[in-house]
Amino acid sequence: MQIADRRLVAAAAVLALAAACTKNNNANTPTTPSCTVTAGTISASSFAAAGGTGSVPVTAGTGCTWTATSSATFVTITSGASGSGNGTVSFTVAANTGASRTATLTISGTSFTVSQSAAGPTSAGSLTAPTANAPIGGQTVTDTRPTLVVNNATASGTVGTVTYRFEISDLPTFPNDPVRTFTVDGIAEGGGTTSWQVNRDLGPDVLWYWHARATDGTTTGAYSSTETFRTVGPCSITVSPTSFSVAGAGATIVVTVGAGSTCNWTATSNASFITITSAASGTGSGTLSASVAANTGAARTGTVTIGGQTVTVNQSAGGGATISVSFRMRDPAVSGASPATECRITSSTGSTCVLESTSFPLGTNGLVKFDWAVQFTDGDVRTFSQSGGNSAFSFTWTCGGPQSTTEGASQPLSVTLTVTDSNGATASASAGSGNQPPLFVRLFKC
User: Which residue of 113, 184, 394, 442 is surrounded by the most CB atoms within 10 Å?
Assistant: First the structure.
């Protein structure tokens, strides 16, 4: 009896140990999170004999996988046969040539019945593929919403009311992507040709592919051959010159416009004294003329805008001359402060000739700028210039140049002075012109 009791106690201990182990193992076993997959509303479940396409949205948590299957071969899953997370199942229903039929589309346990009507009588007519009419051959179109035109499909036998489906895409495969492929159904057949104006703006400088097919709801013809066209690229307009300086008496200005052959442009005057005298618009490259009226007041500035580009017109003050312009020359080594008509180049370290403005304003305006241009020949043409507020200008040359002689070779000295006053009016004087005497340099050997 004692032996039996001891055996019962041992057995109870073993059972308690096993239960403890089982409890510990269950505590350490990770639980797998549950996934919820929901199939949304099917876009179409009943189809005519001609067939068609449909889709079902799928909602699932991140990492949750799902599958889609079709019970019949005439319903083909074209995308989304499997997925993870949110997605879409797309399917195609093939044309029916026999009796009505059904299939079951199953998406992670949710089933949808897809039904299709029977084919029409065997005496039903047929439709050929339409023929692309325009635009074709990769031609460039300027309209961002072009009109696609096909020559109508030819019907034989008995057909119903014919409508057309158009497809346009930037890829020749016409992918099932609403961002890249645009489609329309139900375009009524026209007389001889059928057309559809694209219902959205097409991107610039893109080669587009398009085709169309005809259907009466029961009989559907083949697509036309795929044709292409290109949308025009962004227009770039240039103008030359971009600025004009016009005398107070007025003038006509001519601007050259550069643009692509399909680029349209318009011109607008932004100043009352500037009038556009040629056509104020154009396509492609061309010229534009404008008249600048005589000025009776202070100097002024106006602009013309051509295709977004600006041309500036600066006009001098009116009312006749406002500056008396003149100058004199000195040779410090010979004439000192007295005027001279000749400057002698005798020094190997450089002889300096001095030009001084004797100009003055005829009104209350001040003189603010003096532009000097000097030129003579000693072997090559020698040129000196100065621009700024300094009314005097000096230039230096050395003896022994290519034209120099022992007696001194006299060479004409070209001098032009242009003076600008505070109103922007300008006046010029040149050596040997008007009241200015001819000037010379005399070139000596060293």
Answer: 442
**Three-state secondary structure call for residue 157:** coil
Query: One digit per residue, pLDDT tens: the chain, 446 residues?
Result: 444 454 444 444 434 434 443 444 444 544 455 788 999 999 889 999 999 999 999 999 888 999 999 999 999 999 999 999 999 999 999 999 889 999 999 999 999 999 999 886 555 689 999 999 999 999 988 788 999 999 999 999 889 999 999 999 999 999 999 999 999 999 999 999 999 999 999 988 899 999 999 999 989 999 999 999 998 777 888 899 999 998 887 889 999 998 877 788 999 999 999 999 997 899 888 999 999 988 877 889 999 999 889 999 999 877 656 788 999 999 999 988 889 999 999 999 999 999 999 999 877 778 999 999 999 999 999 999 999 999 999 999 999 999 999 999 999 999 999 999 887 788 899 999 988 999 999 999 99
Residue 242 identity: T
Cα(413)–Cα(372) distance, rounded to whole angstroms?
13
Buried b (16+ CB within 10 A) or exposed e, 402-438: ebbeeebbebebbbbbbbbbbbbbbbebbbeeeebee
Q: Is the separation of the CB atoms in 129 and 162 below 8 Å?
A: no
Please give the C-alpha separations between residue 337 and each of 84, 351, 396, 443, in angstroms, as whole numbers: 99, 16, 17, 21
Strand pairing report for 264-269 and 227-231 = unpaired
Residues 50/219, Cβ–Cβ less than 8 Å: yes
